[in-house]
Amino acid sequence: MTKSELIQHLAERNPHLFMRDVEKIVETIFEEITAALVQGDRVELRGFGAFSVKDRDARTGRNPRTGETVHVAAKRLPFFKTGKALRERLNDGGGSAETY
């Protein structure tokens, strides 16, 4: 599902909201999660999962094409860990998405 499909689905399920309002809600949620991760905070959505940031140290890598060694800079990567309820739902055969 793409972001535009998510917005469309939410708008269909909430006909009392304007499409532009649904777009703004989705954008705001994504912006807040991103801002929290940039600050190094963890974002936990109970029953769904948790977003966090993992730091990777600088290292020496290898160019697979030429075989020469290259320096790989340190970086921060987003990480998502699924929540217990989501894992159980996925492994129990799914069920209806309408229950969320």
Quick description:
This protein has 100 residues and is an alpha+beta fold. Helices cover 39% and strands 27% of the residues.
Tell me about this structure.
By secondary structure, the protein is of the alpha+beta class. The chain has one domain (3-85): IHF-like DNA-binding proteins (HU Protein, Chain A, Irregular). It has 3 helices and 5 strands. A hairpin with a 3-residue loop joins strand 1 and strand 2. The relative contact order is 0.11. The mean pLDDT is 92.
Termini separation comes to: 16 Å
Q: What is the percent of helical residues?
A: 25-40%
Domain count: the total is: 1
The CATH superfamily turns out to be IHF-like DNA-binding proteins
CATH uppermost class: Few Secondary Structures
Structural class: alpha+beta
Average residue pLDDT: 92
Q: Care to count the β-strands?
A: 5
If you compute it from the alpha carbons, what radius of gyration comes out, rounded to the nearest whole angstrom?
19 Å
Task: Name the beta content range.
Answer: 25-35%
CATH architecture: Irregular
Work out the helix count.
3
Order of helices and strands: HHEEEEEH
CATH fold annotation = HU Protein, Chain A
Q: Which strand order spans the largest sheet, edge to edge or round the barrel? A: 1-2-5
Q: Low-confidence parts, pLDDT < 50 over ≥5 residues?
A: none
Q: Looking at the structure, what is the overall shape?
A: elongated
The largest pleated sheet is described as:
3 strands, antiparallel
